[in-house]
Every structure is written in structure tokens, then in C-alpha cells.
Amino acid sequence: LSEKETSAFLDWEGKRRTSSMTELCVRSVLVTGANRGLGLGFVQHFLRMPKPPQWIFAGCRDPTGQRAQELKNLASKHPNIIIIPLEVADPSSIKAAAAKVGEHLGGSGLNLLINNAGIARPKSLDNETLESMSEVYTTNTIGPLLMGQAFLPLLKKAAQGSPGSELSCSKAAVINMSSYAGSIEDMYVWEFGQVVSYRCSKAALNMLSKCQSLAYKEHGILCVALHPGWVQTDMGGTGSFKPPLTVDDSVQGMLKVLSSISEKETGAFLDWEGKVIPW
Ligand code: NDP
Fold first, then answer.
1. Residue 90 three-state SS
2. Can you tell me the distance from the alpha carbon of 251 to that of 43, in angstroms, rounded to the nearest whole number?
3. Could you say which of 15, 40, 97, 278 would form a disulfide bridge with 86 (CB–CB 3.0 to 4.6 Å)?
4. DSSP 189
5. What does the pLDDT read at residue 9?
6. What's the confidence (pLDDT) of residue 132?
7. Shortest-distance Cα residue to atom 12 of ligand 1
8. 119, 134, 208, 246, best to mutate for ligand 1 pocket (most atoms within 8 Å of CB)
């Protein structure tokens, strides 16, 4: 780089892009829970980008199981998809995944970590249990915490390797897939289900996202909590009501949001259209 590139927006190959506000341009991304639902949707949308990432790490807790078949079919056609065995409720699995991703990346860093894997248990206040509260909290809240810790060195490396000081998802970011159901002020769709363990885990995930944003800002890493909308997936569509959003619409919206956010949004709780959600 020389003087003429000052304040230019360059991609990971040094090609000039029009504006950092309009294009998400990542060299590497890791999506947890990438074998179905929104996670698989992210993988598909990354593949369709004008400039797909060089590495799409698809975290999957059971890569040999039936539920991973669609992801495996996709990976067999696209060598930039690398399936990473990853159980987010197991610290040793997370450490092994970080080591594997680091090996693939060689000396470069990881631009984008999407903590998407999540579970919900249809429990009300009356029948919630220690087991369900612990299982949901471990997956939805502790998982993203440990993922952030384990992948921090790779995210830092990506931030250091990107030109410019402005935070962006093209540089280095942690995206925590939260839910409007975790909003304490709004108590979204309470009448459809109390799902107490889920609501508590996402409210805590929102706090974690804020903590991560404050701690990781100095390393050049942007962090947000994102609500995907109410989406037609196994999780979203379990009740009698058909969710309004398709996976495609939700993921497309979220990627547009990710392409536009910067320093002032780090630590925010946003929905798939970029609207701020009350805590
Ligand atoms: P799905 O139930 O369709 O998919 C969940 C994914 O997470 C699966 O790939 C599943 O893997 C994986 N997963 C679950 N537990 C673990 C674990 N312990 N380790 C690794 N992977 C795991 O959910 P959605 O796609 O709908 O949801 C994705 C995210 O979006 C979640 O965090 C959810 O809370 C959030 N969200 C979804 C909404 C919706 O309307 N759909 C609304 C608001 C938020 P496996 O196949 O092995 O079970």
C-alpha cells in the first residue's frame, strides 16, 4: 500500500471496492449450527455473493448424521466450504475447532464469527426445570462466550491485517444470533409461548454481546446481537402459526445490515432490518 490507497476501501485481495457501507466483503467466516435453518441459509448466501469468501467454515455438531446431509452435498460442490465438527456446549470441541480453523487459515485471521447455533425448549414458568434452564443457557449463552474466547486470536489477527481503523464486519466481527424474545421491555410474542429458559438465555446473550463489544473494541472487533425476525425454520415453525419470514429473506436482510454497520453500532441489539430493539 502507498499514499494513493489512503482512505481507499480495499478487499482482501487488494482490489478497490466502491464503499465499505454497501458491500460485505470477507475472506473468512465461521457459522455455528450451519447444517440447517438460518445457519445453512448464511452458508448459501455467502456462496452467492459476487465475491464469495475464500473460506466458509461451517460448524456442525454431527457432520456424519442425517441432519448434515444438505450441508455435505453443498460442500462437495464448493471447495471453499469447510465443515468443522463443532458442539458449542463442549469447551474441548470449541478448542479443537479453533485449532482446525487456524490451520486452514495459515497465517491469516478470521473476519467474521456468526454465533448462530441455538436451542429452545417449550417450557412455561410452571414447568421450567433445572435441566432445561442449564441446557439452554449452556448452548445459547455460554457457547457464544467460549466461542468468542477461543476465536479471539484469529479475530484479532484479521483486524490487524485489515487497513483502516473503522470497525466493520468486513474487517473483524462477532455476530450473536439473539432473539426479540430476549427483550425485557417488549416481551415479544409472550402470548405464543413463555419459553422462559430461551428468553432468559437470549437476554443474557444480549448482555454478553455488550460486554464483548466493550472488551473487543480495542482489538478492532465489532460485536452485535442480531434478531433474525420470526423465520420459517425448525425452531421458528414449531407452533401452529406459520412464521412470516423465509430463511432467504431473513438472511438477505441480516447480510445487508452487516454490510452497513460500523463503530456506532457495536454493542447494539438490532433486528434483520437494522432497527434497534429495546433491551
Ligand atoms: P434451527 O433449530 O432450525 O437450527 C438450529 C441449529 O443450531 C442447527 O444447526 C443445530 O444443529 C444447531 N445447534 C443446536 N444446538 C447446538 C449445539 N449445542 N452445538 C452446535 N450446534 C447446535 O434454528 P434456527 O435456524 O431457527 O435458529 C438459528 C438461531 O437464530 C438460533 O440462535 C435462534 O435462537 C435464533 N432465532 C431464530 C428465530 C426463528 O424464528 N427461527 C427467531 C429468533 C432467533 P443440529 O441439527 O445438530 O441440531
1. coil
2. 10
3. 97
4. T
5. 52
6. 98
7. 33
8. 119
How many CB atoms lie under 10 A from the CB of residue 135?
Answer: 16
pLDDT for position 19: 43
For 269, left (φ over 0), alpha (ψ -120 to 50), or beta? Answer: beta
276 pairs with which residues across the strands? 270
Taking the centre of ligand 1 as the mean of its atom positions, its distance from the CA of residue 8, in whole angstroms, is: 38
On whether ipTM exceeds 0.95, the answer is: yes
pLDDT for 217 equals 97
Q: Please state the pTM of the whole predicted model.
A: 0.94
Angle value at C-alpha 92, between 86 and 94, nearest 5 degrees: 40
Query: Vertex 55, ends 17 and 212: CA angle to 5°?
Result: 80
Q: Are 32 and 26 in contact (CB under 8 A)?
A: no
Which residue, among 256, 253, 255, has the nearest Cα to 272 in the 3D structure?
253
Q: So what's the pLDDT on residue 12?
A: 59
Tell me if 28 CB under 6 Å of ligand 1: no
The Cα–Cα gap between 83 and 72 comes to 8
* 3 state SS of 59: strand
For the Cβ of 87 lying below 6 angstroms from any atom of ligand 1, the answer is yes
Grid coordinates representing 119 are 436451542
Ligand 1 centroid from CA 153, angstroms: 25
Say how many C-beta atoms besides its own lie within 10 A of residue 141's C-beta.
23
Residues in the chain with pLDDT values less than 50: 18-21
| Angstrom distance (rounded) from CA 135 to CA 131 | 6
201 CB near ligand 1 (under 6 Å): no
Quick one: which H or E segment has residue 136? helix 130-137
Q: Is the C-beta atom of 247 inside 6 A of ligand 1? A: no
| Per-residue model confidence (pLDDT) at position 20 | 42
